[in-house]
Amino acid sequence: MPEALFAFDKAWREKGFFLLAGVDEAGRGPWAGPVAAAAVVLKPDTSWPELNDSKKLTPDVRETLYGKIVAESLYHSVRMVSPDVIDKINILKATFQAMTEAIRSLDVEPGLILIDGNQRIPRLPARLQEPVVGGDAKSASIAAASVLAKVTRDRYMTEVDKKFPQYHFASNKGYGTAEHAEALKKFGPSPIHRRSYAPVRAALAPELPFESVVSP
Questions:
Q1: Sheet strands side by side (includes 112-116)
Q2: Which pLDDT value is given to residue 206?
Q3: Total of domains in the chain
Q4: CA end-to-end span of the chain, whole Å?
Q5: Please, are residues 135 and 117 in contact by the beta-carbon 8 Å criterion?
Q6: Domain coverage including residue 193
Q7: Is the pLDDT of residue 214 over 90?
Q8: Across the chain, what does the average pLDDT equal?
């Protein structure tokens, strides 16, 4: 319930963490495109009944919330890390890089950073971080970050679809749908495909059975 999301954050503020930042990512699993991370500091009196984990919202509701977050949050930031970097350092490190850049772009040092997941961000002080498993369904700040990250990345993939329409990025957002798999087999990888990912590696090495390449 939305009320529980805001109550979760309120409990942390009552412990003295007034500048509370929520952090979440979008796009760890796709075969193509960047990974995005957002950081959001909400006003303490924020109350949006429709706010939830971005995966549980319709595209229209996400877009509406995106506008509210940008207009009404105290601070917000989104950063994306490219497929080239993902291939070079791996998706987990790329996700942490995007999160670090998003937090450092807030123009304020949060009193506490609530992070979706079970790990702290390596390059930031541990004392400022609180991992929250399933945080995008527990914390309003994390849920807001999840919306900001997903909408930003979805918009990017929709735009890049104009350049590479054969992969249907506007609809699949780079995720491994059957349609995407067929396009990958037929056309090979695009410049924004993640070449370290198993299905993309298989498309680069057609002599290998598609199922024989192990995922990263």
A1: 75-81, 35-41, 20-26, 112-116, 129-132
A2: 57
A3: 2
A4: 35
A5: yes
A6: 165-212
A7: no
A8: 93
Query: Are residues 104 and 17 both part of a single domain?
Result: yes
Closest CA to 45 of 18, 67, 27: 18
- DSSP character string of 1-41: -HHHHHHHHHHHHTTT--SEEEEEEE-SS-SBS-EEEEEEE
What DSSP element (H or E) covers 180? helix 178-187
Pair 127, 28 in one domain: yes
Residues 111 and 202 in one domain: no
Q: Kindly tell me if the per-residue pLDDT of 25 is higher than 50.
A: yes
Domain with residue 71: its CATH number is: 3.30.420.10
Average pLDDT rounded to a whole number, residues 151-171: 98
pLDDT for 114-146, tens place per residue? 999 999 999 899 999 999 999 999 999 999 999
Residue type, 130: E
